[in-house]
Amino acid sequence: MHTALFSALLEAERAQDANCPVETMKILVISDSHGNTVMLQRIIDLEAPFDRLVHCGDGVADLLHVRLPHGVPVTCVSGNVDRARGVDIPEAEVLETEGLRILVTHGDAFYVKSDYGMLAEAARSNGFDAALFGHTHSRYLRKERPVLFNPGAAVGGSYGVIEISVEGFVLRHERCRESDGVVTGG
User: Per-residue pLDDT tens for 39-74?
Assistant: First the structure.
């Protein structure tokens, strides 16, 4: 699922040093892991290596019980279930990378279970290129700017990957099945 929405942004950012080789930045996006650390670990293992992990809430404490690749930065926000369990981290974060401004939120404060209008307007009016969210447990991608991306629920094996390169900004949904990543002995 390739979109060139951000090509101009990236081209301007990269034009400063056109002779510098450009690598793709890979961001693993998860949400709603809800205690399923086995599935979360499988997702991490399947997608490694990656440059950043984003957790859009409801299960952020699960990150304390999995092995993350060394040195990978993590951006996470609290979801409604996290807050009910006393997790005291912000409900929204701003991720600025590769010339892009990305809003990370769980989505409940924007009533995303009803529709995406409030989230889209908040992202647009605050100058975000994209908004990453969860809460609905349903995969979603709106390609028009600002891009809206819900990776689906990691508790059931859904997650997302964002790749940023000089050619553009690619978002894709992925799914990890129960059998993925299982090592069996002989």
Answer: 999 999 999 999 999 999 999 999 999 999 999 999
Task: State how far the alpha carbon of 71 is from the alpha carbons of 21, 68, 150, in Å.
Answer: 22, 8, 25
Domain assignment present for 184: no
CATH number (domain holding residue 99): 3.60.21.10
CA–CA separation, 108 and 89 (whole Å): 15
12 falls within a domain: yes
Do β-strands 52-55 and 25-30 pair in parallel, antiparallel, or remain unpaired? parallel
Q: What is the pTM of this model?
A: 0.84
pLDDT tens digits along 63-116: 999 999 999 999 999 999 999 999 999 999 999 998 899 999 999 999 999 999
| Domain span at 152 | 2-16+25-173
Q: State the total domains in the chain.
A: 1
